[in-house]
Design goal:
Blueprint: H1 10-28, H2 30-55, H3 60-95, H4 97-105, H5 111-130, H6 132-143, H7 145-161, H8 165-173, H9 176-218, H10 223-233, H11 239-253, H12 257-282, H13 291-323
Helix pairs in contact: 2-3, 2-7, 2-9, 2-13, 4-5, 6-7, 9-10, 9-12, 9-13, 10-11, 11-12
Length: 324
């Protein structure tokens, strides 16, 4: 009987060991890699705006300062004005969660089932509300706190302030054998990622504003919170807008069936306007990433790195698409 002999050369064995050590090292410094990746992403997204200011004879360093200050002021105003109201609506929604679900299920589900579900939802709501501090702690740990934010901000500022800052950084860390291919991939992906980010941000904001005014006009409760969720869900193709609309209709249904029908009609019209007007207008120059790829990237990014992983997911998918 013949025996199969498997021989592994010392060279192959050393390669396996080296790859294993490299992967372990990358896992150890994964937070640093995430910070650098976010800084490169921010710099790549802001670079076109800084270049436009340069064409207006504004020095690059001054243009970078203007862009970053404008972004920080906008973020501060957003946190100061919208976040407190959103938290109040969030607390109110979860405080009344059991009653809302009870009204929705009351006519279609036996009382015994409703009486079982509603108290449990009340318990979940109380747990979420009482554990708000721990939730903030968890988010703080995911983001690495103020150090994570400031480090990312400083690195992205330096990369943006220097002309071709990301390219210079990649040349400094890459071996010469990989330099040309990686830089060519970066410059191709940079244009696509920048266009996608700019278009997606504009689209999310337009949808959030439109949903807020629409729900506010109809008299749907928690209009601000639902509008913010609609804007955030816009990043998830196909499924996100449907989920945002279903959630708004469910909240409206807790008041009356007529309000729910009006809300449903509003979202159907909104979807038609978005699909035939907003998306072609805003995203006409953006890269066409398959919806399944986006959803898979978002799920994988969240599992690997939490919220920062979500931010890096679609750009990583764009790079992957460029490679493939």
């Amino acid at each position: 009987m013949d025996h199969l002999r498997l021989e592994i050369s010392w060279g192959s064995l050393w390669r396996i060991v080296a790859i294993t050590v490299l992967l372990a090292l990358l896992f150890t410094v994964r937070e640093t890699i995430i910070i650098l990746s976010l800084a490169i992403l921010i710099s790549s997204a802001l670079d076109p705006a800084v270049e436009k200011l340069e064409k207006w004879h504004i020095p690059r360093i001054l243009g970078t300062i203007i862009i970053f200050l404008a972004g920080l002021i906008f973020l501060a105003l957003l946190i100061y004005t919208i976040v407190p109201l959103s938290i109040l609506e969030f607390r109110s929604l979860f405080t009344n969660l059991g009653g809302v679900v009870g009204q929705l299920l009351g006519s279609a589900v036996p009382d015994t089932v409703v009486n079982t579900i509603v108290p449990r939802l009340d318990n979940i709501a109380n747990l979420l509300l009482s554990g708000s501090t721990s939730f903030v702690d968890v988010v703080s740990k995911i983001l690495g706190g103020a150090t994570f934010f400031l480090t990312t901000l400083v690195l992205s500022f330096y990369l943006t302030a220097s002309r071709d800052g990301v390219g210079k950084f990649l040349r400094a860390i890459l071996p010469s054998s990989l330099e040309d291919n990686v830089l060519a991939l970066y410059y191709r992906s940079k244009r696509q990622v920048g266009r996608w980010m700019q278009g997606q941000i504009v689209l999310c904001m337009l949808v959030a504003v439109a949903v807020f005014f629409g729900l506010w006009f109809l008299g749907v409760k928690y209009a601000l919170l639902l509008a913010i969720l609609a804007g955030l869900f816009e990043i998830v193709p196909l499924v996100g807008p449907i989920f945002a609309g279903a959630l708004s209709v469910a909240v409206a249904l807790s008041d009356s069936s007529g309000l729910a029908i009006s809300t449903l009609i509003f979202f159907v019209v909104m979807q038609q306007i978005e699909g035939h007007v907003l998306v072609p207008l805003v995203m006409r120059r953006a890269v066409d990433v398959h919806p399944v790829v986006v959803i898979a990237a978002l799920l994988g990014g969240y599992q690997l790195a939490g919220i920062p992983g979500i931010l890096l997911a679609v750009p990583a998918a764009v790079v992957f698409q460029e490679v493939v």
